[in-house]
Amino acid sequence: MERSTIVRVHEGLHARPATRFVRLAKGFESDVELVKDGKAVSAKSSVKLMLLAVKENQEVTVRANGADAIEAIEALIGYLENPKAGLDDEDSQPAGNTGQEAAAAPNSVPAVSGAITGLRGVAASEGVAIGPAFAHFPPDIAGQGRMLQAQEIAGEIDRFHAAVSAVQARMDRSLAQDTLSAGDRGIIAALRDIAADDSLTSEAEGLIRGGNDAVSAVITAASTIAADFSAVDDHYLNARADDVHAVGRQICLVLLGQDDVSLETIPEGAVLIADDIGAWDLARAPLKRFGGVVCGHGGATSHIAIIARSHGIPAVLGLGDQINALRTAREVALDGNSGRVIIDPDAATRAEFAGRVEAAAKERAGLTVFKTVTPKLANGKVIEVAANIGSLEEIEAAQEAGAMGVGLFRTELLFMRHMHLPSEDMQAETYAALAKAFAPYPVIVRTLDIGGDKPIAGIEFPDEENPFLGWRGIRMCLDRPDIFKRQLRALLRAAVHGNIKVMLPMVADIGEVRRTRVLVAECAAELKADGVPHAAFDLGVMIETPAAVLIAPALAKEVAFFSIGTNDLTQYIMAADRLNPTVAKLNDVTNPAVMSAIEMTAKAGVAAGIMVGMCGEAAGRPDLIATFVKMGLTEFSMSPASIQRAKKTIMAMAGEGAA
Ligand code: PEP
Ligand code: MG
């Protein structure tokens, strides 16, 4: 017996809705399956259901066989058509790693004195910290490396099931704590579901029956299921691969009789030193006690970096093997603005860092009142202070800071965190989620800005002598309309849900804007013909090449806004590689050459009556904002951590009578 329907569960059968559906299904004796595109899976396994990747508005069939088949179909179809609540809040944000390179935030506190040396990693979350080192290096887990005798197998299966039960019980105890935040509860509940799901257990049990010891079986089973999650075209589900590994590790630890190395005992203000930190550890970690984080793995946009930024924890990541030098450190000082880490600092360094930490805390406390402020000049003109983000996980931090929308959504990440190009549907969902989160404020989505320096799966980049001067950004997109049109169609679809604006990176020639407009019109016509809801969006350009500055008056007549990308503009005006420390002195936005390029851009935009904003790192610099406002800029987009300070700076200008 079967019945088909259209799924109305908000954002599809992701973790929590899948669990609810499974719970409902398990209440019936009948065998129940869910079928999508001809593929049937048991409706009693949340892992299998999640891997079916059922999306909102897709057609599925519920199939039941047994005494209560009619009731089962009735209940399950009822849930799919009318879930009482869609996703819980904690499930609506995808988890997982992110990818774009974020530059260090401007350094508003004095730099570390030249005498202090140390290790250098990726400046992943701004701020300074000093505190006792808390080393977190969980041991590697390995199986026995021998095949079981036939008579050992039944006992090993019992041992395995007992370990699974122990892990479930531990997770239940964690969930029972009422101190858990909604987000952490969501993560632990998702892990609990995986631990309770028979996909992992039956896979592992099959391997034990084949003669593998339980630990080896769990490691292999977790890798197999994690690989399935990694292969789905859905970044929420991709991130579940880490969860499966985390659950597998917990089961193995119980089997080996080993205690988990827990972060729960981290002392107040300590600096966490680790090679890497998994989702399970992070979800249970008492982040409020963290003074700072230093890791061997991770970049500016890894999961831990995003969490650190959201919680205002200074972090230096990506130290590689240098992390081993910190294993025995007693005290650590770190500078999340410069990426510097100092082991066992001397008295002078300690005093300097302690002073900077205190000053930063005082400043932060004084800035929170600016969260809800709408900064205006003396003449009443509103200056927009928006956030630069690169993933949905960063929405909360941006909103918490008081962002008036998003001035730069870097889409590279969506492309970099997959082993294939993201589909139009997946992109449309992501951009729509952003638009909804910030409406009525604008969300400026930058079209794919990628080149040979950051290769991604699905696009073959040529070997180039100078990737920064090569086939990147709008140049690559216009040569690959298959990729570009998919993104433009997704943006047109998302524009229905809020205030989406689109901007083009690396523009150097007016023809690039015109050719994009032709493609946008083509996409809109195709969507119309297919009956897909869509809406027009404002098209703007980043001003980040000297050519764009020089043709700014002509460009301004063809676009709705400018956003000045000072990171690239500085490197191209000064001919000084932004990643090369030997020319760092030249790579200075305050150089008169760069400032005059910014002024020329502003003049051209103001004369044409279009909005001129800035989304490079200079946008968050309190020492420069007033100058830019006087040039005519009315929008500044920056890392969420800089937003309140920028609002304060603009309000101070108004106080001084600036119009
Ligand atoms: C810039 O170049 O200023 C900018 C904002 O873009 P990105 O740093 O991503 O190149
Ligand atoms: Mg740029």
UniProtKB/TrEMBL annotation:
Its EC number is 2.7.3.9. Residues 1-90 form the HPr domain. It is an enzyme of class 2 (transferase). The active site is at H303 (tele-phosphohistidine intermediate), C615 (proton donor). It catalyses: L-histidyl-[protein] + phosphoenolpyruvate = N(pros)-phospho-L-histidyl-[protein] + pyruvate. It comes from the Bacteria. Its cofactor is Mg(2+). One of its GO terms (biological process) is phosphoenolpyruvate-dependent sugar phosphotransferase system. GO terms for cellular component: cytoplasm. InterPro entries: HPr-like (IPR000032), HPr-like_sf (IPR035895), PEP-util_enz_mobile_dom (IPR008279), PEP-utilizing_PTS_enzyme (IPR050499), PEP_util_C (IPR000121), Phosphohistidine_dom_sf (IPR036637), PTS_EI (IPR024692), PTS_EI-like (IPR006318). Residues 84-107 are annotated as: Disordered. Keywords: Cytoplasm, Kinase, Magnesium, Metal-binding, Phosphotransferase system, Pyruvate, Sugar transport, Transferase, Transport. General (non sugar-specific) component of the phosphoenolpyruvate-dependent sugar phosphotransferase system (sugar PTS). This major carbohydrate active-transport system catalyzes the phosphorylation of incoming sugar substrates concomitantly with their translocation across the cell membrane. Enzyme I transfers the phosphoryl group from phosphoenolpyruvate (PEP) to the phosphoryl carrier protein (HPr). Belongs to the PEP-utilizing enzyme family. This is Phosphoenolpyruvate-protein phosphotransferase.
